[in-house]
Design goal:
The structure holds 2 protein chains of 2 kinds. Chain A is an alpha+beta fold. Chain A is built from 9 helices and 6 strands. Chain A folds into 2 domains: 136 residues, Glutaredoxin; 69 residues. In chain A, β3 and β4 form a beta hairpin. Chain A starts with a helix and ends in a 26-residue tail after the last helix. Chain B is globular, with a radius of gyration of 17 Å. Helix content of chain B is 21%, strand content 39%. Chain B has a domain of 94 residues. At the A-B interface, β1, α2, β2, α3 and β3 of A face α4 and β14 of B.
Chain lengths: 237, 136
């Protein structure tokens, strides 16, 4: 959130707004401490059922979409500048090499500069897609993805309403139907209070799943000029 | 009374459950789900879903309609818990895909930490960087 605030402060146009949506099935109270600590001047909303991920076909956080003044998508869902360099981190204490940290920060800075350019210049910005490019890049959900969102939503509801075990069955079905969704996998771990390491749903099972991706990216690189292309991890591990 | 999760609302509705089918009154379907029964079929805005005329009994029974069957015709997902007390009327991938392919940003309405709701469409006229994060 501090990265978004810094970018927001630098953009002088008041025709620009950041809306940061917490994918947070535990609800407002869990999101509150993070929001109050960051104290952002942009809009923060809480999405208990992950409806934004469902509507925009998002699979991870942070994922972002650029929407123009007319309510049209000019860049469909993609990672908001995160990089796979985290895959080389120490699995116990989450420490990272200077090289990995540098790669991640270059990736984020490149992406944030692209957002800033668009925030200031709109359609003429280098990375704002025209209609045909936006249509080429938008990824549409499959039938199993939409069924996964239905299962996830019912699972969260049942869990939050005293039917934990039954809810977990629907969450498990959602994860099976939509294995690309790290949102579902990690939120379910969080709700079940399993696999938590230093407050994050990032235990060995999580890293095993990440490692199993091999050369496939956890955060597919956004199509932005200058975004680091090196993987930042050894894909054979 | 059962619980129906529909779009972004959670509703308590009187229902008839027959096997795996959810039957709701035409009045509730109109007032709570926003679909109206007409001679052309089940309608919302300019869209009407006709049902096979030789299978009317499976879709209509006096003042009740079989929501499971109609949702199935539309490719929407219907799920329920074991006790059939909680039903989820979900979206299908075709409607989600059609919306995204049109590049019209899907609207939503969500609360801030003070409980005040904001819709994406409230901010039309601004360029919006819509991003997500989480605590987990």
């Amino acid at each position: 959130m501090p990265v978004w605030q810094a970018m927001y402060d630098e953009v002088e146009s008041r025709d620009f707004l950041i809306i940061a949506v917490a994918q947070e099935s535990r609800g407002v109270e869990t999101a509150r401490e993070f929001i109050e600590e960051a104290n952002p001047s942009y809009l923060c909303l809480i999405d208990q059922t992950h409806q934004v991920a469902d509507l925009y076909n998002m699979v991870n956080v942070p994922n972002a979409v650029w929407i123009d003044e007319f309510g049209k998508i000019v860049r469909p869902s993609e990672t908001a500048g995160s990089h796979d360099a985290f895959r080389s981190m120490d699995r116990q204490d989450f420490s990272q090499t200077d090289e990995a940290l540098d790669l991640a920060s270059r990736a984020q800075a490149t992406y944030m500069d692209a957002v800033k350019d668009w925030a200031t210049n709109g359609a003429t910005a280098e990375n704002a897609y025209d209609v045909s490019a936006a249509k080429r890049h938008v990824q549409l959900p499959s039938e199993s993805t939409s069924l996964a969102h239905a299962n996830f939503r019912l699972g969260v509801y049942l869990r939050l309403n005293g039917k934990e075990l039954e809810g977990d069955k629907f969450l498990a079905a959602a994860i099976d139907l939509h294995p690309d969704s790290w949102n579902m996998f990690r939120q379910a771990m969080n709700l079940r209070d399993i696999g938590q390491v230093m407050g994050l749903a990032a235990d060995q099972e999580f890293f095993d799943r990440v490692d199993a991706l091999g050369e496939k990216r956890y955060y597919p690189a956004p199509n932005i000029k200058g975004f680091p292309s090196e993987p930042g991890y050894d894909p054979k591990i | 009374m059962i619980t129906v999760i529909h779009e972004h609302k959670t509703l308590n509705i009187d229902a008839q459950i027959k096997e795996d089918n959810l039957w709701l009154s035409i009045k509730d379907v109109e007032q709570k789900l926003g679909w109206t029964m007409k001679s052309e079929g089940l309608c919302q805005d300019d869209q009407c879903i006709p049902y096979p005329s030789d299978m009317e009994d499976e879709f209509l029974n006096k003042d009740h309609i079989n929501v499971s069957k109609f949702w199935g015709l539309m490719g929407k997902h219907v799920l329920h818990d074991e006790m059939k007390e909680t039903w989820l009327l979900g979206a299908g991938h075709k409607e989600r895909s059609a919306k995204l392919a049109s590049l019209d940003a899907p609207d939503f309405s969500l609360p801030d930490i003070d409980g005040q709701f904001h819709s994406l469409s409230d901010y039309r006229g601004k360029r919006i960087f819509l991003t997500t994060w989480s605590s987990w």
